[in-house]
Amino acid sequence: MQLIKLYKCVLLWKRETTLIFSLFLFSLTINAQEIDILLKGGHLIDPKNNIDAKMDVAILNGKIFRVAINIPESSAKKVLDVSGLIVAPGLINIHTHVFAGSNPGFSDGQSSQLPDAFALRSGITTVVDAGTTGWRTFPEFKSKVIDPSITRVLAWINIFETGFSSGSGFEPDMGTVSVQKTSEAVQKYKDYIVGTRVGHYTGKSWIPFERASEAAKISNTPLFVECHMPQYTLQEQLDHMRPGDIITHAFENVSERMTVVDEQGKVRPFVLEAQKRGVLFDVGHGGVGFWFNQAIPAFNQGLWPNSFGTDEHRTSMNSGMKNMLNLMSKYMNIGMSVPEIIARGSWNAAKSIKREDLGNLSEGSVADIAVLSIVNGKFGFVDSGQNRIEGNRKFEAELTVRAGRIVWDLNGLAASTYKK
């Protein structure tokens, strides 16, 4: 009897050993092919997960598969050596105008830029259009720009039904400024519309501002407040904003709106109170929206931007603004640390638009990645008043990955070496 029991135990052991060994071999076979792209040896900065260290990033099926130290190269189909480079979440530009077309102005117009023409080459994987469309024109924008773009395109929806057409303010028919229609559009297109927007309005009434705010409350989204509303003081605008609402062109110096920094170089107390209350400040550089005489003293006194919206459009990108990396480089040379800059370019921006699925490199998240270099040299950076500061470092986008696909590769990191 004892021999029979022993014999059965041996058979069971052999069977289990064979099964374990087979599973091990199967696992090796799978692991050898399971990673599509392995970013090897880069310095990972992922503010959501508090990572600021040398780590590898593995991509599989358009998602972040694994983040770890020294992931074996044998497990990947394509290995990219990103040693000496920053690996960051894909950047998010929350202030752009991308409803490009043949009309004058911005809405379906020549002043807007198609997102794929500027975003990917700057490490940007998500842009937010700043109210170029309203509830009536958004469906056309979606079909013409959002759907065919590689770049993820989201939007602030304008409280004015047809959106933003020209560069000047106007006075719409108040009967068309609809809380119901706007909030219904946000709900219908909730995967694309992140909030409401008000700006470029010269009338005396508070109706557009109040209705934009009400539509944001109903849809549980932020209000995005632009300038070009000279009838409202800066303090009045901030007083009408809730925690989580965003004011853009935060550091501009133009006659139509009071500056955040006073004549003695001090940040105005009501501005700091608004910041403490939870109002968010976006740069909104644009053509006239960013001045060193506002940004630098504000930075030194603790009024930092929450996000690096660029107000990207045809003219701003050819003036002092240039692109989002140029704006980030300005802040690097002003004194902001690289991790703080990456946070404002990715995770902070994602939180501000309530899209916490973006702006991070958590395992399982979409593989939107910016691989950046910091170039040393002698550089000049220009604000909206044609004032220049000198700096010795700037960001450059080496590689952009959108949903697991390499869509920008400055120096051919993913290309094969040419053999003569």
Task: Explain this structure.
This protein is an alpha/beta fold and 420 residues long. It has a domain at 90-359: Metal-dependent hydrolases (TIM Barrel). Helices cover 26% and strands 26% of the residues. It has 10 helices and 18 strands. It has a 7-stranded parallel β-sheet with strand order 8-10-11-12-13-14-15. Strands 3-2-7-16-17-18 form a 6-stranded mixed β-sheet, covered by helices on one side. α3 packs parallel to α4. The longest helix has 30 residues, at 2-31. It is globular and about 65 Å long. It starts with a helix and ends in an 11-residue tail after the last strand. Mean pLDDT is 92; it is low at 18-30.
Count of DSSP helices? 10
Strand residues, percent: 25-35%
Total E-strand runs = 18
Output the CATH homologous superfamily of the domain at 90-359: Metal-dependent hydrolases
Per CATH, the architecture of the domain at 90-359 is Alpha-Beta Barrel
Indicate the structural class. Answer: alpha/beta
Distance between the termini: 75 Å
Order of helices and strands: HEEEEEEEEEEHEHEHEHEHEHHHHEEE
